[in-house]
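Hi R.,

Here's the chain you asked about this morning:
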Amino acid sequence: MGDVVRAPWNGYFVTGFDACSQVLRGRNWQAPDFAWQERQDDAKRWDALATREMTSTLARLNAPEHTCQRRSLGNLFDRSTIERLTPDVERHADRLLDELADKLRWGEADFVSTVSEQLPIHTIGSWLGLPPEDYPHILEITHNQVYAQELLPTSSDLAVSAEATVQLRAYFTDLVARRRAEPRHDVLTGWIHTWDAMEPDREQADEILYRLTMFVTIASLETTATLLTSMVSLLSAEPGRWEWLRSWPEHIDAAVDEVLRYDPPIHINTRIAAEDTVLAGVPIEKDSMVHVLYGAANHDPRRNPDPGAFDILRGGSHLTFGGGVHYCLGAALAKLEARTLLARMLDRFPALRTVSPPVYAPRMVFRRITSLGVAL
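And here is the predicted structure, written out as tokens:
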């Protein structure tokens, strides 16, 4: 239908790779922040508790607030950090795969609940110093909160998300308070010192610290778990693909990138035109919403020929981690978890196969796979 297609509401779907890249990287495209919401005739549409809470997080901020908060985090997962985290990720992956092996001795196992949901929470949890006994609670409220980030959430979706939002605020506000009272040599204590130096108002500093810690945590969970599950599903779907990658492990990184291209964990992201402009030949008025469709962009045949084919050796490109100032903070960490897990699974489970297709939660934006049956 075109690179830019009118949506049934006051917005546009952006489907072409180059057009999506232009929106993600261009300075004249902004996140839909509070200021934009307040300028809309139907401003009450964004009054839901969970919606307003997420509008306060890093992904929905624009300069200068976004610039200040992002810089305060530093380069979260630079090369040295990834090197330090690698042994921890390997240890978590080995332990979870031990549990998977135990279950597979008796027949089938659910890969999602056993491995793919667990590796991200153990990785980010140990990095932030979250108590392991809290992991199930954090996973549950994260699953429920993201409904508010859907394109067209229902009233029941917003009610579920509202309850989860209250619990998220309580949990991470308490976490910041406890870490302030008992400092450690960890990343959260470092953030506290940074914001104490930047913001003289302690209450305001703690509010920002809550938002940053909460956002970094939940942004690391749902998307990475879906990536890990899709990876196993796609690589074991075609006879011989799993065995081929075992023989050619130097292509593991390429396999992860092809999974990210073929079925991105997030399908839609929204930006706002900061001024009247033209996108792919289509006039766009100031304040109009444009919805970047990652899956469509990644399957643009002008960028990735024969896009419907899953090809580990494609050497193509994708926009799954976004672009510009909002490029995914945890991209390097997600890829570390994926390649570490895949390398170990190929070695330990040479005959792994799926016995039931992935089951997806009914979502449009944040895709979640709720189960994937595997066997040997």
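One quick note: The radius of gyration is 21 Å.

Cheers,
M.
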